[in-house]
Write a structure and sequence with these properties.
By secondary structure, this protein is mainly β. The protein has two helices and 29 strands. Helices cover 6% and strands 47% of the residues. The radius of gyration is 20 Å and the shape is globular.
């Protein structure tokens, strides 16, 4: 989710939004459903399963959509949810903030719609819905889904603590909740502990600066680790460390990447590089940044690879063929769990349809395709 005023003036924004709404209305079918498209992007591969891409959609416009890459045919299918679930109210909803697969179910966290839609992993048919106010991210552990919640109205500067909801993946009922910091974001599980980034993003400059640690057995917060302001992403490596991004204050405190030792629950290292998001595969963390500055009124884009085993930066860019110059606003990243392909999304100006890029492990472009509005979050179907 991004603040559109960072990019363009209010006057131009209104003009663009009006044009976008008119364009969308013209493209809708008589039943109100935006038709999807199918694009041949790769060669058929019957040995690997496909993946879903959740497009966030602009806030307040109910434009979140779900795409699917069918590896068996090499065809990329856009906006499949509305076609498969034509009776769903307001289609997928308002701001798709995260997506994850656990067992036979696909969980789509729809932030401003205050819900988690649960779909069948293979058919994308809607199974059920979990109501969670201002929900943000989802992760899984021992038959349970864990969803972070701001527990507040959008943009409420006086909002108090958020919480994590524990959901039974069989019944889709909320079992327990635990209070954490203000505006909790992404989570990662290491051993029997849950690590949550607290942002405090609704009340700048009074940001949060801690990672909450929750014991998964008692479901109690056992510690808060002081890290940095305005935390966001949390990713675990295979060595027992957790990587946490700080977004800074968008003025003089810059974005940065931190490493937490989960044995001692302390910050053990940091990297002086901007980090909006990262994906870890093996010993490599692929990092990108689109760091916004209110001083310059623009994003600064960068890429890097970090070796998580020895905690050193390997390279300043993982895109090696120059295509990075075409990407205006990198917004999502994933690494193919089977062949190491790198997927990067471009949200462009947050108004027009975005683009999904597929790069080889060597950083060479394989293909690209038009996605939905603000393409962001991936879920690979396991074999």
């Amino acid at each position: 989710m991004r603040i559109l005023s960072r990019l363009i003036s209010c006057r131009n924004l209104l003009l663009l939004l009006s044009a976008a709404i008119i364009g969308l209305s013209a493209c809708r079918k008589g039943n109100g459903i935006i038709p999807g498209e199918e694009t041949q992007v790769g060669q058929p591969d019957t040995l690997r399963n496909g993946f879903y891409l959740l497009n966030e959609g602009n806030m307040g416009m109910n434009l979140s959509t779900l795409d699917y890459y069918d590896r068996s045919t090499g065809i990329y299918k856009s906006n499949i949810y509305s076609q498969i679930n034509p009776g769903a109210t307001k289609e997928l909803g308002d701001v798709g903030n995260d997506i994850g697969i656990y067992g036979s179910k696909l969980y789509a966290v729809i932030n401003m719609s205050d819900k988690v839609d649960v779909l069948d992993t293979h058919s994308a048919k809607r199974i059920g819905q979990i109501s969670i106010r201002n929900c943000r991210y989802v992760t899984f552990y021992k038959g349970k889904a864990y969803v972070s919640s701001y527990a507040a109205t959008i943009g409420d500067a006086s909002a108090g603590a958020g919480y994590i909801a524990e959901v039974d993946t069989a019944t889709l009922q909320i079992l327990r909740t635990v209070t954490v910091g203000r505006q909790p974001e992404e989570m990662a599980i290491v051993g029997d502990k849950l690590y949550i980034a607290n942002s405090g993003g609704y009340s700048p400059p009074r940001y949060e600066r801690t990672v909450s640690v929750v014991d998964m057995n008692t479901f109690k917060e056992i510690k808060r680790i002081d890290v940095a302001i305005n935390l966001h992403r949390v990713k675990a490596d295979k060595y027992g460390d957790v990587y946490v991004t700080s977004r800074g204050d968008y003025y003089n405190i810059h974005s940065k990447l931190y490493v937490i030792d989960t044995q001692k629950d302390i910050v053990k290292d940091s990297f002086n590089l901007a980090a909006s998001n990262l994906a870890i595969a093996g010993d490599s963390a692929y990092v990108y940044s689109a760091e916004w500055s209110y001083i310059t009124n623009k994003n600064t884009v960068s890429y890097a690879i970090i070796n998580v085993k020895d905690e050193t930066k390997v390279t300043d860019n993982f895109i090696t063929d120059g295509i990075d110059k075409e990407i205006r606003t990198p917004y999502g990243i994933a690494i193919d769990p089977e062949n190491g392909d790198i997927y990067v999304t471009d949200a462009k100006n947050y108004l027009l349809p975005g683009t999904l890029y597929c790069f080889s492990k060597a950083g060479k472009k394989r293909w690209s395709v038009t996605a939905g509005n603000i393409p962001a979050h991936f879920a690979f179907i396991p074999r």
